[in-house]
Fold each of these.
Amino acid sequence: MCGIVGYIGDGNAKEIIVRGLEKLEYRGYDSSGIALNCGGSIDVRKCKGRIADLEKLINGEVFDSHVGIGHTRWATHGAPSDVNSHPHCNIKGNIAVVHNGIIENYVELRKWLKDNYNTTFKSETDTEVIAQLIGVYYSGNLMDAVYKAQEKMKGAYAIGVIAAEEPEIMVAVRKNTPLVVGLGKDGNFIASDIPALLKHTRDVYLIENDETVLLTRDNVTIYNSAREEVGREVYRVEWDEAAAEKEGYDHFMLKEIHEQPKGVLETLMRRLDENDNIRLDGISFTKEDLEKINRVYIVACGTAYHASLVGKYAIEKFAKIPVEVDVASEFRYRDPLIDEKTLFIAVSQSGETLDTLEALREAKKKGARILSVVNVVGSSVTRESDDVFYTWAGPEIAVASTKAYTTQLICMYLIGLYMAALKESITEEYYSYIISELKKLPEKLEKLLESEPQIEEIAKKQYKRDSVFFIGRGTDVGISYEGSLKLKEISYINSFAIAAGELKHGTIALMEDDTLVVALATQDKLYEKMLSNIQEIKARGAYVIGMAKESNKRIEEQANDVIYIPDCADEVSTVLAVVPLQILAYYVAKFRGCDIDKPKNLAKSVTVE
Ligand code: AGP
């Protein structure tokens, strides 16, 4: 939530910062702004709306500036407006701050500043408090003032700060929200995420919690909370700028849907050796460790939660260990039974989702071993986990998660199979069969993507709908949830997913003439049962889009439209079944004229409760 950028160097600060913000717009897009040090005074330009609106505002303005900060916002404190947009300044206007996160004690601090310094505030934001606080402590040494302000601030924040009187430095702090530093040839950078830096450098420092960074044109120095200098290895980003570009696709979401064969292949191949044994490079999880575990929780939010449901299926089916799955926002507050015999698996694309992170901390505090399944290297979840199982999806920019999800599914299968191999709870033949089915998925995904025009046609017929139901059985239940979430988040159609067997316990009351239902019947084992469910809703007049494996043609007798996925083992059909639903959601949203990559009210990483 919110993206921050900062630059100090020989280049044109305005251009570099605005281009960087464009790459972070997925993090929040209700307002944006920049603050530049222009010859010893700070110029701020900011407005409500997209970065394109900011660009219009500053179009033609020339700033002689080589140091500055920028922000793209997802509102928490105060509605999106020009005045609430970042950067924020102190009363004197000689300090400017951009902030991602939340200052929990900002009400208290506002009062303290009013009572003691007669401070007046322009905005309703918590961020303005940071600028004012640094302002009252500032007497010519920005580092000092930032350290003093931190002593009073509670909450989560990544901030970038500049001072009018010190044009040769920029200061940044990380506390529980992401911050990376880019090391360029002609200057240095701060950003909430790597894509903002890739135009200039692939060499970065991953900043840790409670670290303060002092940047000059030629130097970057990292300090801990005791103001001691700390060393850091340069992290070389493996992907380049092109990986974070649309590459000819209309939207990132469509590009990312098409990257799934590659992401799945990559995630598999990084974990399989030449004999198809699962390698846990960097993870030390032994048979003895597994024997100590008597409870597994998989905890996540949104799409990652839907992947966790498949994790439960895979671990229970292969490793025969009971698993509980929970949404992180609920898990945190339900006083779950956790001790040192608990394995806690956190699943997160961004690795920054606050609810997931807090659930992880809760589990860790009580002694659980933490394994995380994460896409973003070096993110908060990875730092706080004992072991990390990366999804190799590459950068996911669209707010609607697609390739992160399918690669999370692969990780879930691999974790289940690894535990099964340790426990010897499945036969070698069955293990080899599932691995071989997993290895066939990239090719089958390629084939499945060829049905995009057919799914586009279906979307064209249905995009004006007000509501849609998704039903399925077994692993198709989780896929129904995911298909429904994908549709509602980008097309704003009211969609609802339910286990098909549950329909007759209430929801079938809503079935009437022409009700649209997407019915998933991708598992041989449950195929007949699903055909009966389809028959039941058809009898009430529903219009059914069915999905089945290509050998299971009888669904054509029931459904109005049918989407086929390639034949595969029931166990792994999830990875294929979700793809047509992603494409359906994409085209429905496109026909409705929605802003697909940046749906309203959402942001890519949710770093607030
Ligand atoms: C996915 O399409 C959503 N935008 C959302 O549900 C997302 O999966 C959720 O916020 C969790 O994010 P994470 O994977 O980064 O933790």
Amino acid sequence: MNTPSVTPPLLQVDSLAVHFPMARISWLQRGPSPVLQAVSDVSFSIQPGETLALVGESGCGKTTLGRAIVGLYPATRGAIRFKGEDLTQQTSAERKKARQAIQMIFQDPYESLNPRLPVSDVITEPLLIHGIGNRAERADRARALIAQVGLPVDALNRYPHQFSGGQRQRIAIARALGPEPALIVADEPLSALDVSIQSQILNLMSELREQRGLSYLFVSHDLSAVHHLADRVAVMYLGRLVEVAPRNELFATPSHPYTQALMDAIPRIGQGRRARGRTIAGDLPSPLKPPSGCAFHPRCPKAQAICKTDAPALLAAPGRAVQLVACHFKD
Ligand code: SF4
């Protein structure tokens, strides 16, 4: 599922699976040990300068996928190609070099910054790890980065606990920018912030993308933020991609019943008050025991008999070559 472009992708993920063997909870349990299938058979690409949003309910596997791409979780199967090199086959030294070019912003800026380090060290630590610059050059870069994320230079002398959540996320972004990455995996970077601050961070990410030609994998459950930042959107359900489309096509004509349910769940402004969106029927099944066939069938209003037995492939929707959908009955 490549984007329709002749430019080689920056990131190409092919048939990726990330599974976690689990311990039996009782000696009475028989058969093979359970396996948590967090990510299964996921393929997508990201072009240079492109933002791909990864959306889905909490627990659908999107954070695991992001963490596998930055090397925090090992791939069980499949390939993660960055600038053509398969990261899953690299030695740890080769992988370290690639990781310089793929940085991550975490969800919680309260936990992602070392509270014992002044902000100057928080930002220069990745530079030190990757052997970038001497002490004076790293300090210069820290000053430039803190200014670029909109904080005063004297912030470098303070500690993370002296900042608000939004300011901490700015520091986390400065830290991620230090090694001059080509790709940033941003894992729910807004969800721990006040609503009033979220748009500021979103605008900062947008500006940095323009200034630096960055690509983002933007992991989020917030479809309003996704609409603001993403070029394309990948919808994930229980470890698998069920729809991938350019942003405008996905929001105008969501084709998979799960994408349609996510859209229906967006809160709307109506008659002077913010109306709650419809909730999605049923609960997300356990990735320890995904349903047979199409994993969405127990919650899908359009499910037919075939849905319980045959898993649909991710294919172009009728008349829409750029919109890929995994459903036996695409609109
Ligand atoms: Fe619903 Fe069947 Fe399509 Fe799955 S394949 S989304 S169960 S209609």
